[in-house]
Amino acid sequence: MTLIENTAVRHSQATRTMVLWCPDWPVRALAQFEGIPVEERIALVEHGVVFACSASARAEGVRRGQRIREAQAACVDLMAFDYDPALDYRSFEPVALAVEELMPGVQLLRPGMCALAARGPARYYGGERAAAGVLLTALVGLGVEDARITVADGRFAAEQLARMPGETGIRIVEAGGSPQFLADHPIEAVGDSNLSMLLRRLGLTTLGSFAALDFRDVRARFGETGVYAHTLASGRDVRRVVPRLPPQLRDIEVAFEPPLDRVDQITFAFRTAAERFVDELTSALLVCTSIRVELHTDNGLVHDRGWGHPRWFSANDVLDRIRWQVQGRTGAGAGALTSAISRVRVLPEGLDSIGNYETGLWGSTPDDRIHHGLSRVQSLLGHGAVMTAVIAGGRGVVERQVMIPWGDPRGGAGDEHPWPGSIPLPAPSTVFEKPRAVTVQGHDGGPVDVTDRGSLTCVPALFAVSDAGAGVGRVAGAGGMGGGAAHGGGAGGGLAAVERQQPIAAWAGPWPVYERWWDQAVARSFHRFQVVDASGTAWLLALHEHGWWAEARYD
């Protein structure tokens, strides 16, 4: 017999479970956040379909899972918002905390619904209905007046009881009555769309008809998935309520009296707390990979910033981040400190198991030594003294190279977003920090240009690279194209020093680039080409304002 069968045999009676459900909680959370009445016609959209909608929207024909255009066609004044799951969890947390103060052992099923074992509250408050009444009164005090509290044998039956249409309030199925209560529910209630579709085709349209089958036949035909669904349909839900464990607060805070205005004083006063912070994490077999430092000033302002680490934070690393943040806030800039610091708080934002960062069998690796050396340079010269390159988003090759301080998180550079018109793969291996001036000419030695209609004035035939190096500076909005004295063999331009011209073996283009046309200060418009010279070297070229420039080379 399988584990599910053994459990079902041992527990002929499922555990009495109490379920709290607040209907349309995502809509309620959004309405409270946006400051609009919950009675409005509201729909939350996720991936182009309706995730949740208000009661007034449902009255107009809007349904969950409906495409947003169909929903807007059914309800012309529908207010559509993007679904934010984080908002749901944040808004439901006060409700969960209020329930835990009255009845410990709460399991959060989803925002708007939680479960707890009914035996303890029933014995304490004098019955299941009395315990549900106490809970309902507390929710009304929080402004949740349409909550439903149900009690049944097992979590599955209690959830189905809560979702039945009708008035809000308290609903209870007597002990042992869950199989009879579930018998008339449609087979789709099992939650598995493929299984429910197959069962309906076989003529099993209700949970009762499915529960009447022998579980051995169900196992032979539908496997373990069918046995589990059969257990739920039979009213023998053996799932236990698993109380959530509140996360332990591991942030550290040090107050200064009187407030301090010197960096060395602040870091010295915080050293003991930083060491205790790291020791507590080590005792819990955890390491911290990112922190947030809050600087509270004497005049009530708060300066906060997140800090990452390529490996994990030690006590000295925490002190270095505090020192760098204080140093970055001193001076006369817009974010400068206007008074002394009265309190410093460090919050761990990223925690990981210490087992993922254990030292190797033969000691530290070369990466460890490199990191310690670079961190030492940072501690002496400042946070921005050591930079590392990351790939960011963009259409050009130069703008995709971003330098960030060593230890900062590498994510969030925008590389995951689509960039229409970007340089296709394979990417060039050599990217010039400043574009190099080149000449591109036709067979007759005349300059090659692009007309306003996007056509070439002549076929590119000759190519040469200036040995004077990079272009002179950058022109704002020109996408890094060189400017000034040097021009690249365009219409009327010449080069002071040019290598011997080579025939062009192959070329492709032009590809027009029009970016940020709405902002004249940074707008740019040019054409890109790819050429292969006689030696077989491929180049990425740009034609900007009748001048030719080499952005990169395919080595």
From TrEMBL:
Q: Which Pfam families match?
A: IMS (PF00817)
Query: Any idea where the UmuC domain is?
Result: 46-87
Task: Write out the GO biological process terms.
Answer: DNA repair
**Name of the protein:** DNA polymerase
Listed InterPro entries: DNA/RNA_pol_sf, SulA_CellDiv_inhibitor, UmuC
- What keywords were assigned to this record? DNA damage
User: Where are its TM segments located?
Assistant: none
Superkingdom of this protein's organism: Bacteria
